[in-house]
Amino acid sequence: MRSALKYLRLEMKKKGHIKKSDGSKGKSSMREEEKVVAAGDACQFHRFTDDELQNTQTKLLEWYDANKRDLPWRRQSKVSDINQRAYGVWVSEVMLQQTQVATVIDYYKRWMKKWPTLEDLAQAKLEEVNEVWSGLGYYSRGRRLHEGAQKVVSELKGEMPKSCEELHRQLPGVGRYTAGAIASIALGQKCGVVDGNVIRVLSRLRMIGADSASPTAMDAFWDLANGLAATCERPGDLNQSLMELGATVCTPKAPQCSSCPLRQTCRAYAKVEKEKKNSAGRLVSKEATVNIPDIECLAEDCRLCLNPDDPWDSSLGVQNFPRKAKKKAARVQSASVCVVCKVCQDGQCRFLIVQRPLKGLLAGLWEFPSADAETGAERPRPPDILQQLQDGHGVLVSDVETQAFLGEVVHIFSHIHQTYLVSMVTVKEENVTMAKEDQARWVTKEELDAAALPTAMRKVFKLYSEGKGHSKGAKRKLDEVSKEDKRQRSIDSFFTPKR
């Protein structure tokens, strides 16, 4: 605690809060020094002391060496060619944004097999990229990765930027976190990273109770992460150890504190143990004892502490941290979508898909013809469907074999609760003409499976496949939301374990 007070006094002297001591200060005066912290300043309570910094680095790396998962991108980060290392880390970090490790592994392997180098990716077509990315979600990530590879090859002569700052500035879609990850893991630069897992670990270690998405809290997290990496000889492994710890031990729910290598310096854990001690009326065991004398911030108006209006909940323990921002309600939208089946003269069935605009939601992907509908709208009338095909997609149908309303499909995007009103139309080849062939095409079921089709459209086609044998006009509603949707509904970019 003395080192903490010494550090605090030095900081306060620099800021003019206190004058040089005349040697007559008592304990009460020292306590006042602890309180005189300007609003928003991170007092020593929320920082690491020098000893804590070194101990945290050592414990994390020891734990990581013994417990790290064998992941394909970690093997890729050890290759000798620096550009190849950076490319491999870049691909993995972009894929891992808002997506769980188990999902990413197969995508990463397919991607690296198809485009093993930056040059290979730069030569690919965007449609190919979307097809490989299909099902991974947040499709703008793949598009920007493709754009970045093209920029490196065409403008940077195939050389990846060599610092965190240059990566952030020069590569499209590479933010502060991704730049830090590439720079530290692939290039060995001593810079920190802050993602959802790191936020969770640091907020518990230092009891940072401010809204984790707020500028004040984010500045504190970056200061802590950069401070840890600045004096570490293995910054890439250190950053990965923080992320690994958050993903496997310091989890959002049911954290395994007894297995955590940092529990001895975790302020949230110390508070939990102190409460156990007080409630039991006896000393805790030696193993559970935490060597932190004071576990309450003594600074007045500290903006990193828990909000008095939302205080510590003993039933949650360390899960009091991090504090999440209040989520905005998802926007509710509806759209009518039509699966158009063309029966060709060769007996083959082909389906109409159209390309979405190159900007906006699901940019550049293919889908069944659709149009916005009023929220809560009743099922569309058949003439509306045919007019929609003609006006919106240049598809003129002179005669219809069958048409029906199949039901509803619900799909949850991160910020949109989307309902699709699904209809079907069957036409013969000789009764349909198409004017906009550059942005629309007919595909077989096999080609449909391989196309860059969003998950929502695959669910629409599943409903069509299951419902096309029902009587015409049968109405069904797809009430069951897939496991993926349930996961998407709870996605929070900072707090779900993604790694």
Q: List SSEs in N-to-C order.
A: HHHHHHHHHHHHHHHEEEEHEEEEEHHEH
Radius of gyration: 28 Å
Mean pLDDT: 82
Distance between the termini: 35 Å
Give me the count of strands: 10
Strand content: 5-15%
Q: How many distinct helices?
A: 19
Structural class: alpha+beta
Description of the molecule:
By secondary structure, the chain is of the alpha+beta class. Helices cover 43% and strands 13% of the residues. The chain contains 19 helices and 10 strands. Strands 1, 2, 3, 4, 6, 7, 9 and 10 form an 8-stranded mixed β-sheet that branches. Strand 1 and strand 2 form a beta hairpin. The protein starts with a helix and ends in a 10-residue tail after the last helix.
